[in-house]
Specification:
The protein is α+β, with helices and mostly antiparallel strands. The protein contains 2 helices and 5 strands. It is elongated and about 95 Å long.
């Protein structure tokens, strides 16, 4: 971490502020997360320009320099455009919420007896495709 990490941003002294968001995926543990940053452009007393990355009101190291996994602290992290992790999570949630298809039973009709259940065999399914013997 740099010596400025941990301090809050200096929005008042910034010459420009750019907002960027990134998605991250750890190649070690598979954890994925997203983070938005305010990138503050400043000029120091000697006239040198520098930037500060601010996330959730705190100055943090650049996520592009040496990203670390927030889950396992691993440093093999893939950086992607924003929205990648949230779109995968949404798809996974939709996938898990959909019940699996199964047999559908028709409701009983009053006054009728239930038909005997038919157990299908492969030969029943292939019967329409079998050739009739020429006679």
């Amino acid at each position: 971490m740099t010596e400025i990490a941990g301090r809050t941003g200096l929005h008042g002294t910034a010459t420009a502020v750019v907002h960027e968001s990134y998605a991250f995926a750890c190649m070690r543990c598979g954890h994925g997360w997203e983070q938005s940053y305010a990138i503050e452009h400043h000029t120091d007393a000697e006239g040198q320009e520098f930037v500060m990355y601010v996330a959730e009101g705190r100055v943090v190291p650049s996520p592009l320099s040496r990203p670390a996994c927030v889950n396992c602290d691993g440093h093999v992290v893939r950086i992607m455009r924003a929205g990648q992790v949230s779109s995968v999570r949404s798809a996974a949630e939709r996938h898990h919420r959909v019940p699996q298809a199964g047999p559908v039973e028709a409701p009983p009709v009053p006054g009728q007896t239930a038909p005997e259940p038919h157990h299908w065999h492969l030969s029943d399914l292939l019967h329409p495709f079998q050739r009739r013997a020429a006679g």
